[in-house]
Amino acid sequence: MGSPRSDLGERTGPRAGDELSPSTVAAVKVVVVGGFGVGKTTLVGAVSEIRPLTTEETMTQASVGVDDIAGVEGKTRTTVAMDFGRISLNDELVLYLFGTPGQERFWFLWKGLFEGALGAVVLIDTRRLEVSFDVLGRLEDRGVPFIVAVNCFPDAPPHPLEAIREALDLEPSVPIVECDARSRASSRDTLLVLMRYLYDLTAATQER
Ligand SMILES: Nc1nc2c(ncn2[C@@H]2O[C@H](COP(=O)(O)OP(=O)(O)O)[C@@H](O)[C@H]2O)c(=O)[nH]1
Ligand SMILES: [Mg+2]
Q1: pLDDT tens track of the chain, all 208 residues?
Q2: CA of 12 to the centre of ligand 1 (A)
């Protein structure tokens, strides 16, 4: 057996070419989840300051009849393993973003991806709310705090956020916001809502 592999969490100090000093910068893991085609890869790509790592592949004949593309017929690429990106929200806080596939056949990946994650953004498409039910249920089961971001597609009929909250059976305390996953500013604002929520949750726990 060789020596144990170090991972991101075991860094001992800055390395050459490293602009982040671990002593002053908090690195936080955040997961972006949602059903198939809701815009996860788009959001991670829009906000990431590093070239997002994505493992998109052209949908093959193998996914025909497996991936439900009703409503997203124009979609020809699908994320196979995950998306990865990074965004500095300020001088002290860096988010590492992990986009996870919504398809049920990738759920075995969830365990590893949620390890160490502080929270999640659940992206939804109001034309296909049903693809989000399983994802929300899984987060609730795991006790991962999340916010819901409604990705506004142009041909989606507008719905009041409170109606969406009701349709998804969300607790009143769970933040729900609108976003445009293609927009860097909008996607960044969405992540700020998540961070604010996580901060408030922590503060509330400490008060008890
Ligand atoms: N109009 C519009 N299209 C979007 C938006 N977000 C994503 N898309 C498109 O929707 C499709 C699915 O997005 P993608 O990010 O691949 O979804 P994923 O499966 O959740 O990763 C792509 O063709 C995107 O260009 C959005 O906010 N508005
Ligand atoms: Mg994707």
Answers
A1: 444 443 444 444 445 555 555 556 899 999 999 888 899 999 999 999 987 776 665 555 555 555 655 556 566 666 556 789 999 998 899 999 999 876 667 777 777 788 889 999 999 999 988 888 888 998 898 899 999 999 999 888 889 999 999 999 999 999 999 999 999 999 999 999 999 999 999 888 888 7
A2: 39
Domain with residue 119: its CATH number is 3.40.50.300
Quote the number of domains for the chain. 1
Q: If you measure from the C-alpha of residue 206 to the centroid of ligand 2, how many angstroms do you get, rounded to a whole number? A: 36
Residue 203 lies in domain: 25-207
Atom of ligand 1 nearest to the CA of 183: 27
Q: Which helix (H) or strand (E) holds 53?
A: strand 53-58
In a domain, 89, yes or no: yes
Q: Rounded to an integer, what distance in angstroms lies between the CA atom of residue 170 and that of residue 172?
A: 6
Q: In what order do the strands lie in the sheet with 53-58?
A: 53-58, 77-88, 93-99, 26-34, 117-124, 146-151, 176-179
The verdict on residue 142 lying in a domain is: yes
The answer to whether residue 67 sits within a structural domain is yes
The preferred substitution site among 42, 48, 179 for testing ligand 1, maximizing ligand atoms within 8 Å of CB, is: 42
Residue 101 lies in a domain: yes
